[in-house]
Specification:
With 318 residues, this protein is α/β, with parallel strands linked by helices. The protein has helices at 32-40, 55-64, 83-93, 112-122, 136-139, 143-161, 179-184, 198-208, 229-249, 265-274, 279-294, 301-316, and strands at 20-26, 46-51, 73-77, 98-102, 106-108, 126-131, 174-178, 212-223. The longest helix is centred in the last third of the chain and has 21 residues, at 229-249. The chain is globular.
Length: 318
């Protein structure tokens, strides 16, 4: 049977009706209940919540919302060794033909499940990535949310311009795959044990397996991104270490970016000083301390610049 282009396909014209299983790795964030409730409103086959940390908290969030009374909701234990292995635990537990994986701080908009299913029914061998901008109310009051939002929107513009980059700059949190493809490409592998940039590593393996990435802004959700400045900077440092590790594993795919190029000349000089033996440690400590204090309020140009400078500083020394 000849497949019609995606925009002509309807549920009644599709070759098969895919049963959707939702997987949500969780550490018990408050918005988990809203995520599960919105997924249930689209009548999936099941919603599998992976309690990867704080299992009592995860269960408590669901119980308070009376969600465990729904037979479609199941809680399974995660290994507690990072989100990639937690996703795999959820994939191993599902029964559906199509697996939609959501982070526990990504709240779906209406029609998300149906939209993912529609694309997969029209085109096989796809990894479908939905849009998950940071929730506007968080961007308005958090410096780190504003910075993360800017980074994410820049990445989305790249994907809009070059769809072939979807798997090479992979952002998990709102994505789907057919179960058969999940079996071919596991969420985690023993050769990469880092707990950061696992999304990128997974995308590289999907690319190598011949899957095709699709980024669709109509598959909407909102990311409830919350990070204190100090946690944001610690993570930024760890991400750079992981990026160097990934570059060694995938030298033709993983690029290690240098944030100094985007800074003004004076800021670049400060970063250079922060890398010098002896004085560098004092400079780094002073910049991180200033950014932590300044970044506690709503985003202003000065506060954002201070935290961005601190991020480059912590990522620049060996």
């Amino acid at each position: 049977m000849r497949r019609e282009p995606l925009w002509f396909v309807t549920d009644t014209e599709s070759d098969e009706a895919l049963l959707v299983s939702v997987v949500i790795p969780s550490i018990g964030r408050d918005v988990l209940a809203e995520i599960v409730a919105r997924c249930l409103s689209e009548d999936p086959l099941e919603v599998v919540v992976v309690a990867d940390a704080n299992p009592d908290t995860v269960t408590g969030v669901l119980e308070r919302a009376d969600l465990l009374a729904d037979s479609r909701v199941r809680v399974v234990a995660g290994p507690g060794r990072g989100v990639a292995l937690a996703r795999q635990a959820g994939v191993d537990a599902v029964r559906g033909d199509l697996v939609l994986i959501l982070d526990d701080d990504v709240v779906p908009e209406p029609g998300l499940l149906a939209g993912h299913r529609r694309i997969h029914e029209a085109q096989p061998d796809r990894v479908v990535v939905g849009y998950m901008p940071v929730a506007p109310h968080l961007v308005a009051k958090s410096v780190t949310a504003a910075i993360y939002s800017g980074d994410y929107e820049s990445e989305c513009r790249v994907l809009d311009a070059d769809p072939l980059r979807v798997l090479l700059q992979f952002w998990a949190g709102n994505f789907s795959m057919r179960r058969a493809d999940c079996d071919r490409v596991p969420q985690a592998v023993a050769t990469y044990a880092e707990s950061l940039l696992e999304d990128e590593e997974f995308g590289f393996r999907c690319h190598a397996a011949g899957l095709v990435g699709v980024f669709d802004r109509s598959l909407g959700s909102f990311h409830h991104y919350r990070r204190p400045v100090r946690t944001f900077l610690v993570s930024a440092r760890a991400q750079m270490v992981a990026a160097r590790r990934l570059h060694g594993l995938y030298p033709g795919l993983m690029a290690v970016t240098d944030g100094r190029r985007d800074l003004p000349k004076a800021a670049q000089a400060v970063v250079w000083m922060s890398t010098r033996p002896g004085i560098g440690r004092l400079v780094r400590a002073a910049i991180v301390r200033a950014a932590t204090q300044l970044g506690a309020g709503p985003p202003t140009r000065m506060r954002v610049r201070a935290v961005v400078l601190a991020r480059v500083v912590v990522q620049s020394y060996e």
